[in-house]
Amino acid sequence: MRRYFPFLRGKQNELMALRELAGQIAEHRFIIPIIEPVKQNATTRISLDRYIEVSMPFLFVCNPSYGDFANNPELLFTDLTNEALMEYDNWTPALQVNVNSTAATINAFLQRYEQFEVAIIYNGLPANAAAVALLPNERTVNHVFVDGAVGAAYVNGINPELRVMIADRFHRQARNADYPDTEFFSDANTVAGNPNRLDFGDYSIVGNHFAETGGPAYAVAVHHIRFEGNAPGPLHINHFISDHVDAAVNTSGKIIEAVHNLVEEIDNFQPHDTAACDEYREMDEEQTSRGLGYLKRLAIQHHLEVMLNGGIVL
Questions:
Q1: DSSP H helical segments within 29-116, as ranges?
Q2: Positive or negative, the Cα torsion across 177, 182, 185, 189?
Q3: CA atoms within 13 A on the CB side of 110
Q4: How many domains does the chain have?
Q5: Angle between helices 251-265 and 292-306 (to 10 degrees)
Q6: Which helix (H) or strand (E) holds 145?
Q7: Is 216 helix (H, G, I), strand (E, B) or coil?
Q8: Both 135 and 152 in a single domain?
Q9: Residue 3 belongs to what domain range?
Q10: 214: pLDDT strictly greater than 90
Q11: Does residue 198 lie in a domain region?
Q12: 269 and 295 part of one domain
């Protein structure tokens, strides 16, 4: 079975969705989350402690592009990796590279984490030949290629067993009210969509997008991953929108509406027996909102549960 690498930026609800399923992920071992830490807070540290406690495998971005640690790997090392991870074996330090990455930066990363196998995440190929030469080495066990960032000639030169192909499958809309009822999400989990049978990943229901906070909630949307049809196979995503979409008021009421619209249809989808589905039903029965962040957490959790329970069919 190939492995699934969900790329999650470590805001509160992303980390907590992983915490809910950390034990199952550790047991199955074919889901390897990629975590880009973005918050210097207790939630990040507590979450790492939980992942360590249950031996959950993960890639950990050591040079984040966003948030509190952006462009400050020294702070990240001092605050997190040196304190929490250096004695833990079941994680992989990951370095993001792009066209501007230098040999000095790559060497510093390799030396700092010299006792670990490492991963490289390609947001582009360094223009400097000396930098490129450092990337494939005996310690690089994952080459994570962001879709469209690196030419095929280089990608095809990497051992297929070490490649991870990651793409943004979430078609983000400017307004929640603009999402369609349903659309294709991914078939990278199937032989038809992944004929070379490579490890693969995506950015779940968040997309390759980062914002510190959300805008005003004119409409609330619940993004729900499901199989196409009744059997495991390609994934589609349904978007359940609140009934009221015209004014940035009564967010709690809109959450209740959106969840109710999902629950009205949820038994028609496969799967419909995840723990997240049960929580949606409970929210609908109790007519309680629990907040926008909690909705995102449940949507990510459901997606992970789908992948844990038959979502990978190659």
A1: 42-54, 73-76, 103-112
A2: positive
A3: 18
A4: 2
A5: 20
A6: strand 140-146
A7: coil
A8: yes
A9: 1-167
A10: no
A11: no
A12: yes
The DSSP annotation for 146-206 comes to ETTSS-HHHHHTS-GGGEEEEE------SSGGG--SEEEEE-TTSTTT-TT--EEEE-TTT
Residue the block writes with tokens 């790492």: 48
Query: From edge to edge, which strands make up the β-sheet containing 221-227?
Result: 182-186, 235-241, 221-227
Is residue 55 one of the residues assigned to a domain?
A: yes
**Cα 87 from Cα 186, distance rounded (Å):** 37
Tell me if 35 sits within 8 A of 62, measured CB to CB. Answer: no
Span 234-279, pLDDT tens digits: 999 999 999 999 999 999 999 999 999 999 999 999 999 999 999 9
Contact 164, 260 (CB under 8 A): no
Question: DSSP H helical segments within 194-267, as ranges?
Answer: 251-265
Q: Smallest Cα–Cα separation from 202: which of 214, 179, 184?
A: 184
Per residue in 91-103, pLDDT (tens digit) is 999 999 999 999 9
Q: Residue 307 corresponds to which tokens in the numbers above?
A: 């992948």
d(CA 202, CA 200): 7
* CA pair distance 9, 38, nearest whole angstrom: 7
In a domain, 46, yes or no: yes
Q: 14: which 2 tokens? A: 């992303």
Residues 144 and 180 in one domain: no
- Does one domain contain both 21 and 56? yes
Whether 5 and 129 map to the same domain: the answer is yes
Q: Tens of pLDDT along 5-20?
A: 999 999 999 999 999 9
Residues 29 and 139 in one domain: yes
Q: Report the distance separating Cα 282 and Cα 287, nearest Å.
A: 8
2 and 143 in a single domain? The answer is yes
